[in-house]
UniProtKB/TrEMBL annotation:
Key word Hydrolase present: yes
Alpha/beta hydrolase fold-3 domain residues: 96-297
Protein name, as recorded: Alpha/beta hydrolase
SUPFAM superfamilies for this protein: alpha/beta-Hydrolases (SSF53474)
Entry superkingdom: Bacteria
Alphabetical keyword list: Hydrolase
UniProt key word Transcription regulation: no
Gene Ontology molecular function: triacylglycerol lipase activity
Family statement drawn from the similarity comment of this UniProt entry: Belongs to the 'GDXG' lipolytic enzyme family.
Membrane-spanning residues: none
InterPro entries: AB_hydrolase_3 (IPR013094), AB_hydrolase_fold (IPR029058), GDXG_lipolytic_enzyme (IPR050300), Lipase_GDXG_put_SER_AS (IPR033140)
Positions annotated as active site in the UniProt record: 170
Amino acid sequence: MVTTTTPPPYTPHPPSARARFAHWATRRTIRPLEHVVPDGELGVKVTRRVLATLMAGAGTTPAGVEVVPVDSTTESFGRIKGEWVRPATPRPGMVILYLHGSGYALCSTRTHRPLVSRLAKESRVTVFSAEYRLAPEHPFPAAPEDVERAYDWLLAQGWRPDQVVVAGDSAGGHLTLDLALVLLRAGRELPAGLVMFSPLADVTCTLIAEREQAIPDPMISAEGVRKLFAHYLLDTDPLHPRLTHVVAPGEVLPPTLIQAGGAEFLAADAHHIADMLATSGTDVRLEVWPGQMHVFQAANRMVPEADRALRRAARFLVTTLQARAAATAGNDHEVTA
């Protein structure tokens, strides 16, 4: 059996010269755009196009990875959209459910295909990258409802929860935590592990605004994020339990890896989630990469730290799946003995 060693303890290093240049260039070219892009639905549509172009140039899609679109409608699950992303030699009995970032209004499986493909190749694990409905066309709770259905659909394809790692970035990290809590509180079997890149925690943007006073994000202001979330929230109270997640002591979730950039607007959110999970009794690891921007893992053309971080995430999820498989096999042996 092929094994993968657990990633060594994370040791922070100063950002590379390329990362420092990317930060400088982003602050001078990308952040000023929020003062030019119009507000409202037109602004969202313009931002979607701009962001898709930027992400296409920031990351690479590796060779040897197969992408198969999915768009099916069934009576049991409704419409399921996404894509299978398969490495050349996938490990058997393992799958990743990936939830792309979006600010709940932007991006898609297509914009995140380079990141997801690299994760599939590094881990040698098949990925189902799920599409979910976006605001302003589809405000809360459309996105978490779609994610729940995607997870149940994945299980209906023959995967067991102990064979699944749920991963996501930014709003996708928010959805990852939401799904885990929904499953836990429903008394259902949990997936083997969770991976979150630059996860969102606070939709009120209080943490983001406080962070901005100390370390302004090179991409977007707290006010820009707040405007984006307004399309998703509409009149919903941001303290709704599926928007502001509270993990109580004793609500133990699967082993979790959180990675965030030290220069980004969601660094405080990442710390908040890690603190909640640690208090709950969850095995959680937090890596804050100095000088890195939001979801820097997607920008391997720009910063060398992107591939390094993704390799660590791949090793974490594989060892987590292997450990869960071994535990499941041991439990089955005890039952039959």
